Amino acid sequence: MTKIAYNAQGTKVAFVEWGLYKQIFVMNANGSGLVQLTNDAWDSDHPCFSPDGSKILYTSSQDGTPQLYTMNVDGTSKTQLTNFIDGAWHGRYSPNGQKVVFTTGSFQDDVGIMNANGSGATLLAASGTDDENEPTFSADSSKVIFVKTFDSGGDMVGQIMIVSATGGTATRLTTSLLDDREPVASLDGLYILFTRADGVGREVFRMTMAGASQTKITNEGGYTVSPSTGG
After folding, report:
1. CA–CA distance, 50 with 204 (Å, rounded to integer)
2. Domains in the chain: ranges and CATH
3. pLDDT in tens, 168-187
4. How much is the mean pLDDT over the chain?
5. Three-state DSSP class for 92?
6. Burial (Cβ within 10 Å: 0-12, 13-18, ≥19) of residue 180
7. Using CA atoms, how far apart are residues 177 and 175, in angstroms rounded to an integer?
8. Which of 20, 42, 97, 115 has the smallest number of Cβ neighbours within 10 A?
């Protein structure tokens, strides 16, 4: 089981099960009512609930190139949102439900943003030389947090960035060069949680939205599961 997502209401959990292909399942938060939503000869990945809990945004590779789709929470009404030459994946809704951020690209990953119905797609972060991926929104939907890769002595490591959801120059929040990834904003809008390569594994860290007060909040000595606030 991988790629776990909770709905904002705290009543449902979606996740990806690996077999011959990746498939999406949903169940109640207490573990009951398990339902398989996809059962296809291609991968379905990265589930994310809409803020009202009625739809699931996900990535499907049914045409060979990953694209973003939505479906109802019961698996009906599967609808394709993107049809980009370079594909689209890792889609995330804004908390207000109006926008979706995603990763796209061929030689380098870039961060894109579009309306929740798939219209108005544009690149939000595209350096042309470095990968930018794993986008997510701030709690008030005004900012997009993402990961950009930097060269650290020959090793490419992720660092956390933030940019206005309307575009502009991104601000670098972490400078650890220890591979920071999987950012997620806290529901109260005060913090960003992320994982950092720390010793033999990864640990969860917390910082303010401005990148201050970076603090390790787990100490498991191994791989720590990605932080999540739903979605």
Report:
1. 25
2. 2-216 (2.120.10.30)
3. 999 999 999 899 999 999 99
4. 92
5. strand
6. buried
7. 6
8. 20
